Every structure is written in C-alpha cells, then in structure tokens.
Amino acid sequence: MKILISAVIGAGLVLTGCQTKQISEMSYKEVQSFASMIDKRCRPQVRTKAEYQMCIRQEITMEQTKRHQTRQAIRQGFAAAAEGMQAMSDNYARQAQSNTRITCYTSGAYTNCY
C-alpha cells in the first residue's frame, strides 16, 4: 500500500512538475518558452496593442494562479498520504502490542501474523 501511494505521488509529480514552477523560478529558456505560449494564446484574440497587453497580463495571472493551486494540491496530497501511513503504522503497532492475530501479505501470500 505504501509503495502504491508513493508511486501515485511520484507519477503526479512527474506529470505536474513543470506546471508548478513559478515564473520567478524558471530559467531564461523556460521563460522564453512560457512567453511564446502566452503570445500564441493572445495574438488570435486581440485587435489592438492595449487589448494584447491586457490579454498577456490576464493569461500570466491565470497561469500563476493555476500553478500555485497545483502546488498546494500536491502539498495537501503529501500531507494526506503521510497521515494515512501514520494511521496504518499506529494500527499495526497497536495490534502488535496486543499480540493479536492479524492477516499479513508476505511473499505473495496472505498469512497469519502475530
């Protein structure tokens, strides 16, 4: 279970890693790529320079907000996973202290553990 949780979190980080980096944390090349992406979004929608500047500002604000929210969601996911693992650990410790029989999964089979 712990391995599955870690794998899911790891995959999420790989997929969202670039989408959580704030503009101030980007390299020069990343900022250029980001600016090009924003430019491609705004050019077809605007007719004047003022509209273009307003579109650029709005798109950057939207991107920053999305990235911040994604970063927060990842942090909350880590916190929830840590709480879940702690609860499992506490449960196993309680059962081990009371020396009760529990079912364990070891070496590909379910067995009784004490």
Automatic annotation (TrEMBL):
Protein name: Lipoprotein
Species the sequence originates in: Phyllobacterium brassicacearum
